[in-house]
Design a protein that fits this description.
The complex is a heterodimer. About 5% of the residues of chain A have low confidence. Chain A is built from eight helices and no strands. Chain A is globular, with a radius of gyration of 17 Å. In chain B, 48% of the residues lie in helices and 20% in strands. Chain B contains five helices and eight strands; from the N terminus they run αααααββββββββ. Chain B has an eight-stranded antiparallel sheet, covered by helices on one side. The radius of gyration of chain B is 55 Å and the shape is rod-shaped. The relative contact order of chain B is 0.08. The model of chain B has no long low-confidence stretch (mean pLDDT 86). The chains are: A mainly alpha, B alpha+beta. The interface between A and B is large, with 69 and 39 residues.
């Protein structure tokens, strides 16, 4: 568990009641996380900020939908951020080239215990598994697209990803 | 797709990495496998947590302002004041319309009452006139019955003349009592402003013996005014005269009867 979660639960309760001040506090707590993920996926600060805006508007409108039994607020936010960022990525890929990789402020260290654990778990994966997983996670590629990108057989890619996921689950365990 | 195969695909499905026919087959089979659904939920949560591995990166300060501005609930004062004013205006208008409608309704009611009163007055006047006519008619009939019971009472028939060929009448009179009654049938109602006038003709000029009207069926039982002199009467005649009556006949004669 992250140290921020009890505070997050309280903020989500206030958001559910329509407490607008709570949105500012929630944003202060998680904007960096959401933006970091959006920048990592989109590699474009302006598009990342649009994504961050969309995610927090969704939080404001749908705080009542947050179900603590299905994961932490951080996981919830990351899922929303990834889904929206990958949507933008797909729309973009049909009309322009991938932008230059820019420095996305990634010098900032992960601030929470669990973030560190996740990062360590990912780093512990064999490079080929990690590569396949990252293509699925950050670029939203499907198993066939990954096989094509890596010039590997589809079955091999599927096995790598599945093995990586099972391993991560074993290392990280349930979130709560 | 068997359950073992389904469960193998769950980690890939949680990442959204399945595609093509395999994805369709997975989604179709998932609905009937609670175990796969539980596994999928667990892996989806894991996928959510993977985002934590990314280095946080603060967005620009302007973004916070933009978010709070776009999600800010409408300011309470403005939010409350305009609807309150609008509600007040609506209430005032509704009140005005209500009073206007009440006032119009009252006016209509008063007009209706006035019309009803007028109608009642006219009805009463009409009833009164009818009552008077009936009373006169009844008095005439009672007088007629009494008159015919006396042996001295005499009767004369009057025939319709050229102006009223279908008219017929009788006059019964008791010279000693100075009483007489005219019973007539077949007379057309007199024209507007006109009436029938009875004349007693003896040796000298005709003497007026009363003014009368007939009913809608052309009938009348008319009791002659008291105090008339019947001695030496030779003829009874009826003429059409102004409704107030005249001292001497001026209009056309409709009935006449000679006393034998």
């Amino acid at each position: 568990m992250t140290s921020a979660s009890p505070q997050a639960a309280s903020l989500i309760r206030r958001l559910t009641r329509g407490d607008h001040k709570a949105l500012g506090e929630f944003y202060d707590l998680y904007a960096g996380l959401v933006n970091g993920l959006a920048v990592r996926i989109l590699r474009d600060r302006a598009e990342a900020e649009d994504t961050v805006q969309e995610v927090f508007v969704q939080v404001w409108q749908q705080a009542a939908r947050f179900d603590p039994s299905r994961g932490t607020p951080e996981a919830w936010l990351c899922t929303m951020a990834r889904t929206r960022a990958l949507d933008r990525l797909r729309k973009r890929s049909s009309r322009r080239e991938e932008p230059e990789l820019e420095n996305a402020g990634s010098t900032e260290p992960p601030r929470a215990e669990e973030a560190l654990a996740v990062r360590k778990a990912l780093e512990s994966l064999p490079a080929d598994q990690r590569k396949a997983l990252e293509l699925a996670y950050y670029e939203g590629l499907t198993q066939s697209e990954i096989a094509e990108r890596l010039s590997e057989p589809l079955g091999t890619v599927k096995t790598r990803i599945r093995t990586a996921m099972i391993r991560l689950r074993g290392v990280l365990g349930p979130s709560s | 797709m068997n359950e073992e195969r389904l469960l193998e695909l769950v980690p890939l499905a949680a990442l959204g990495a399945l595609d093509g026919e395999e994805r369709a087959a997975f989604e179709a089979a998932l609905a009937s496998s609670p175990a796969a659904q539980r596994e999928l939920q667990a892996y989806q949560e894991l996928v959510g947590r993977l985002g934590l591995a990314t280095a946080p990166s603060q967005p620009s300060a302007a973004l916070r302002e933009r978010l709070l501005r776009e999600t800010r609930p409408a300011a309470p004062r403005r939010d409350w004041l305009a609807p309150a004013l609008a509600a007040g205006l609506v209430a005032a208008l509704a009140g005005l319309l209500f009073f206007r409608s009440e006032r119009d309704a009252a006016r209509r009611e008063a007009a209706a009452l006035e019309a009803a009163a007028q109608e009642a007055r006219e009805t009463a006047q009409k009833a009164h006139a009818e009552a008077v006519a009936l009373r006169e008619s009844l008095a005439g009939e009672l007088a007629f019955r009494e008159l015919v019971s006396y042996p001295e009472t005499r009767v004369v028939s009057l025939a319709g003349l050229a102006a009223a060929p279908s008219a017929r009448a009788r006059v019964v009179w008791h010279a000693g009592r100075g009483e007489a009654v005219l019973v007539a049938f077949g007379l057309a109602p007199a024209p507007a402003g006109k009436a029938y006038e009875l004349w007693i003709i003896a040796k000298a000029a005709p003497v007026p013996a009363g003014v009368f009207q007939v009913d809608a069926q052309g009938r009348v039982v008319f009791r002659l005014p008291a105090g008339l002199e019947f001695a030496g009467v030779r003829t009874f005649a009826v003429t059409v005269e102004p409704e107030g009556g005249t001292p001497a006949p001026t209009g056309p004669m409709v009935l006449a009867g000679a006393v034998s």
